[in-house]
Amino acid sequence: MEDLLILVDDNDNEIGYGKKMETHITGKLHRAFSLFVFDKNSKTLLIHQRAAGKYHSGGLWTNSCCSHPRKGETLLDAVVRRAYEELGLEIPCGDGMVSGLTEVGKFQYFADFGSISEHEIDHVFILEIEGQVRLHPDSEEVMDFMWIEPSRLTEWMLREPDCFTAWFAPALSIVKKSVIGKEYFTE
């Protein structure tokens, strides 16, 4: 069964649902999220390289996990679900609370990839963990991953911006401005 994405208006109000590929082909505005996982101990950020076979942006580097909530699913539930499905990362949760997970902002963007596009209101989340956990990425989603020092990431993005997804820089900008992000991005 194909995922039904949550269609939204410019104010992020839910206005309906759309099949995943149809939504991307028609460029309808929909809800998404970007997760940034930081290791408090090493002060590093987890980033991943999208699998080559992805329907767009294959082989590009991006934040720890990114996806869409499904019809009837909260953003928090979607973040927890996709972190596990994509990375094998279990985020502790219970009683409606998700340990260490904080939403730090959102933004709207449009990126055209030819036959499809991304037109999203992207909610940006930070997850802080203690110690680089063992990951079990899904090879259909993730080609590679690394834990990187934020200063090295910033230098890399300036040197080779075409190595990264369209949403990564604006999402990272929100992270850098957040209270939590300022602990990791000191420049």
Overview of this structure, please?
This protein has helices at residues 20-26, 75-87, 150-159, 168-177, 179-182, and strands at residues 4-8, 14-19, 30-39, 44-50, 61-62, 65-67, 93-94, 97-98, 101-112, 117-129, 142-148. With 187 residues, it is α+β, with helices and mostly antiparallel strands. The protein has one domain (4-182): Nucleoside Triphosphate Pyrophosphohydrolase (Alpha-Beta Complex), CATH 3.90.79.10. The strands form three sheets. Strands 3, 4, 5, 6, 9, 10 and 11 form a seven-stranded mixed sheet that branches. The radius of gyration is 16 Å and the shape is globular. The mean pLDDT is 92.
**CATH architecture verdict:** Alpha-Beta Complex
Structural class: alpha+beta
CATH homologous group name: Nucleoside Triphosphate Pyrophosphohydrolase
Number of domains: 1
Fill in the CATH topology.
Nucleoside Triphosphate Pyrophosphohydrolase
The overall average pLDDT, rounded, is 92
End-to-end Cα distance: 46 Å
Percent strand equals 35-45%
Low-pLDDT segments, ≥5 res: none
Q: Mind telling me the CATH class?
A: Alpha Beta
Major sheet summary line? 7 strands, mixed
Q: Order of helices and strands, N to C? A: EEHEEEEHEEEEEHHH
Global geometry: globular
**Share of residues in helices:** 10-25%
Note the total helix count: 5
Number-wise, the strands total: 11
Task: Calculate Rg over CA atoms.
Answer: 16 Å
